[in-house]
Specification:
Strand order of the largest sheet: 1-2
Mean pLDDT: 95
Structural class: mainly alpha
Number of domains: 1
Low-confidence stretches: none
Order of helices and strands: HEHEHHHHHEEH
Shape: globular
CATH superfamily: putative protein disulfide isomerase domain
Distance between the termini: 40 Å
Radius of gyration: 17 Å
Number of strands: 4
Helix content: 40-55%
Length: 197
Amino acid sequence: MCSWCWGFAPEIKTLAKEFSVEVVVGGLRPGPSAEELGDRMAEFLRSHWVEIAERTGQPFDTEFLKRRDGWVYDTEPAAIAVALLRESQPPSTLDYFTDIQHAFYAEGRDITDYDELTDIAAPHGADVDRFRADLDTPEAKKRAWADFSRARNWGISGFPALIAELDDERLALLAKGWTRADLIQTRITSLRAEATG
C-alpha cells in the first residue's frame, strides 16, 4: 500500500524478467501505525497519487479517497497476505504483490479486507480456503512483522527500496525511491564488474 511502490511496479517487473526478485514487505503503516482515512490524509494521498501517476503513468482511482466510514489505512493485512503467499507460492509473489497494488490503486478495492486479499490470491495458485484461514493466524502476522524487522535491519526507511545480495554477507542498495529500470540495470552491471574486477 505504498503509492510509490505501485509507481515502481513496471520497473520491478522489467527487472524481474532478467533477475530473481524476492518481495520483502516493509511495513509502511501497519497495525499500530495505521490511520483512519479523513480529509487531511485523503488530500495528502490524493496529491501524491496525482504526482505519481504523472511521473510513472500508473493508473490511480482517487474515488476511494472519498470514503468517510471509519476505514483505516492499515498496510498490515496486505503485508500479511504477501508474506503468506510467498511461503506457499514463491514464484507468484511479485505478481500477487502488484495485483494487490492494482486492486487498491487502480480499482479502489479494500485490500485491508482478508476476503478481497484471498480473491486476489486465487489466480496465483493459493488454496483459497486455507489461505483465507491462515490470514487470521498469529503465525502469518509474525511472518509479515519479521519482514518489517528485516527491512529495518537493512536500514530501509523509505519505499520502494531495492537491494542486491552480492553474497551471503554483503548487500548493495540498488534503488531508494522510484527509479527507472535501466538505471538499476546499469548499477547491477557496475556491481558485477566490481565483483569480477
